Amino acid sequence: MIDFKIYSSVNDLPNQWDALVNHDVFLQQDYLKALETVSPNNITWYYVGFFKSEELVGLAIMQRVQLYLEDIFRNPNDHCLEQRFKNLVSKVLRGNVLVVGNLMHTGQHGIFFKDILNGRAKVEAIYRALTALQIKVKEESGKTIRLLLFKDYFETDPIHKQTAFFESHQISKVSAQPNMMMKVRSNWDSMDDYVGSLNKKYRRRYRTAKKKSKDIISKELTLEEIESNSETLYQLYKNVSDNAKINTFILPKRHFCSLKVHLQEKFRVIGYYLDGGLVGFYTLIMNNDVLETYFLGYDSEHQYDNQLYLNMLYDMAQFGIENSFKNIAYCRTAMEIKSSVGAKAVAMSMYMKHTNCVLNALLQQIFKLMNPSREWEERHPFQQ
């Protein structure tokens, strides 16, 4: 039998925690402390340690997410059909959700176990902890959990071998938007090498984007500059975030400051300046040999003329190449433009269960409405 313990603060985690997950910054205490300090108002963090004979053999990050209509949908000027869609989604999502993983970043950054345990034992232990956390939330807050979510697994993840377990607990597998990943080629030592590998059409596209941004000055921001520009960074982030179809949280204003304090050189903020004013930014997290793109923002007034977003994608690629990363995780959304710089869509799935048996029976169909497959054309920018 695997024992487990639920922690409500990073400060209480066992000493062996970081040593177990030195491969993933998103599971380490510095990152978790940063988010615990400035987390979205509707997210509460829990950490689960799994023990066998008092040895820490696994861990899980879990979140209680309180979802409300105004947080999920931020555009009040909708047509009738869109309003009906919102009402349907709110019936499923409204209330308290327990997430195994991190809702704030794309990818499987929620669980890790030593290989001494078989797959069935792992998912059974996680589910027992999840059930215990449901009871804990009810006792402490009086809130009932409406939805359980196991978040973001590549199709190669061994969790998919546990189909029998999920089916026996009426937990549905649903497709999520893919993670856009770019493999850094071994012969790319500089951005010139990358540009040289593009075909004629996309080489011209790259040069046009750079020409349009000739008046933009980019620079990495220090902690002091992040703090002094925190209000502007927040407004630029909100400009982009508010245009998303569905949102489950809003970052607090000092989120980037906290990440810089705790992650230091593993977290970078790159600002774009035009005529001395900050008009855009993007953020990066160094995760061993993977460069993880994080949140970004820009002033819509300057986006098109300066091709800010496309230039950010190119600059992220340049950072990854020049700093010898093996992969660049561009995350989900905007798949077509990300594929135009060389990212490939890597399929991901989630597992979900609604605590209302009627809604749970309809969950896969409802989720398709919430998360429709978007028609987009994959681009092929490299020479054959």
Describe what this molecule looks like in 3D:
By secondary structure, the chain is α+β, with helices and mostly antiparallel strands. Helices cover 38% and strands 28% of the residues. The chain has helices spanning 17-20, 29-37, 69-72, 80-93, 119-141, 163-168, 191-197, 200-212, 223-228, 230-241, 255-263, 300-306, 308-322, 335-339, 357-361, 363-370, and strands at residues 3-7, 43-52, 55-67, 95-100, 111-113, 145-154, 172-183, 217-220, 267-274, 277-287, 290-298, 327-331, 344-354. Strands 1, 2, 3, 4, 5, 6, 7, 8, 9, 10, 11, 12 and 13 form a 13-stranded mixed sheet that branches. The longest helix is centred in the middle third of the chain and has 23 residues, at 119-141. The radius of gyration is 21 Å and the shape is globular. The mean pLDDT is 91.
What attributes characterize this protein structure?
384 residues; alpha+beta; globular
Task: Give the SSE layout.
Layout: E1 3-7, H1 17-20, H2 29-37, E2 43-52, E3 55-67, H3 69-72, H4 80-93, E4 95-100, E5 111-113, H5 119-141, E6 145-154, H6 163-168, E7 172-183, H7 191-197, H8 200-212, E8 217-220, H9 223-228, H10 230-241, H11 255-263, E9 267-274, E10 277-287, E11 290-298, H12 300-306, H13 308-322, E12 327-331, H14 335-339, E13 344-354, H15 357-361, H16 363-370
Parallel strand pairs: 4-6, 11-12
Antiparallel strand pairs: 1-2, 2-3, 3-4, 3-5, 6-13, 7-12, 7-13, 8-9, 9-10, 10-11
Task: Please describe the biggest sheet, giving its number of strands, its sense, and whether it closes into a barrel.
Answer: 13 strands, mixed
Arithmetic mean of pLDDT: 91
- Terminus-to-terminus distance: 53 Å
- Please estimate the helix content: 25-40%
Which structural category fits the helices and strands? alpha+beta
Unreliable segments (pLDDT under 50, ≥5 consecutive)? Answer: none
